[in-house]
Hints:
Blueprint: H1 3-14, E1 26-30, E2 33-36, E3 41-44, H2 47-50, H3 59-69, H4 83-95, E4 99-103, H5 106-126, E5 134-138, H6 147-151, H7 156-159, E6 169-172, H8 177-183, E7 188-193, E8 196-197, E9 203-204, H9 207-220, E10 223-227, H10 252-255, E11 267-270, E12 281-285, H11 287-290, H12 306-321, H13 324-345, E13 349-355, E14 358-363, H14 366-378, E15 381-382, E16 384-386, E17 390-393, H15 401-418
Parallel strand pairs: 3-15, 5-6, 5-7, 7-10, 10-11
Antiparallel strand pairs: 1-2, 2-3, 4-12, 8-9, 11-12, 13-14, 14-17, 16-17
Bound molecules: pyridoxal-5'-phosphate.
Pyridoxal-5'-phosphate binds near residues 142, 229, 230 and 438.
Amino acid sequence: MTKLDQIRAAEARLLLPTYERNPILFVDGEGVYIIDENGDRYLDLLSGIGVNALGYRHPVIEEAILRQSLALIHTSNLFYHEGQAELALRLTERTGLDRVFFTNSGTEAWEGALKLARAYAGLKRSEGVPIGTKFLALEQSFHGRTFGSVSTTWKAKYREPFGPVVPGVEFVRFNDVADLRAKFSSEVCAILVEAIQGEGGVRPLTQEFLAEARALTSSTGALLLADEIQSGMGRTGKWCAYQHYGISGAPASAAADSSLGWIQPDVTTLAKPLAGGIPLGAVLCTEEAARAIHAGMHGTTFGGGPLACAVAIAVIDHIENENLLAHATAVGDYFQDQLRVLAARHSAIVDVRGKGLMIAAELDSADLAKLIVAEMLKRHILINCTSETVLRFLPPYILERAHVDTAIAALDEIFTEHAGAAGVAPAATQAAGGPTHV
Ligand SMILES: *Cc1c(COP(=O)(O)O)cnc(C)c1O
């Protein structure tokens, strides 16, 4: 029995069967490569689902972990440590928001955002503003697995086994402005969006839809919540994906409250790449929304600990010092260009989209998408498939053009072999579909 076989047998016996893992045992990493027990290197275009922004064994992260672990790892939030204010300053400066609450994960950040929206609506009611408790979420949304988050997540298979979920959530058709207008009323306390949906298939909101969501919420005192857990922290070439949405093209009513040059939400959430692999999330909000929170209303034992904060500060400073936002934009544009060249050769690729290093190639068949992920894995390149037919690329920000060329050549080979000129896939027989869990 190999070591991997032993681990698989033990996990099968001991763990809740929540994951269909690929049968690979990773033990190490270096730069954009993750390395298995045999020393085989895999080009990682998924970076632990958008987490390992600086790749593996990055000296900046190693140094921050070492330095902080020799001092303090945990204090609890009953006392001060040096990291939270320092990190909060960096985050508020980059997002245009005013105040921060730190968490350990994405879903906890989203829970905090939902609770803040309900508390703020309560405050407004106490001030005489008629406003309800309903959330408008979007179809194809993904916000996490805890109760509030999963209640605002579109896929029924994530929600229904756990019912009843949190009541008061209605789903709006993606990018359908008329549906948004029809479902919005003073009953709504918040509209919930991802500027670019991640698990939903790397789908960007239209300028018009986001502007309308901003205008509607501003008109009643409801909040606009932007989940940037996957798309934030530089992934798309800007600190937040909503910063791609200028106010110039928006209806005049939407521009009113923003002097920042982009459509500004009231609340945003960050997590995945925030601390380069150490668990950390954050809720950010305006000074106005923060009026709803006072001491004792919300909290966490671990959130915003000294270790996670120290690493996040190091990651942000490194992204800034090395101009990695511009790099992500340039390499991401190149990646999309090359995927478009591929799409011209293989009719099975029906769309290429994304921003920066959050990229998708949509195929005409779910079986083919599964097959491509499995074939890429055989060639030691990690990608995944989301939303059935969408190949998703979330590489580390340190990706270079040469890595893109390697991936494109492999894809070209696989499409040529398996999709044919007609773009029709043979039935996929491989069981390993790649990680589909976000
Ligand atoms: C991953 C993700 C979450 C949940 O984050 P976890 O850290 O897995 O709890 C929430 N929203 C979006 C957009 C995500 O991509």
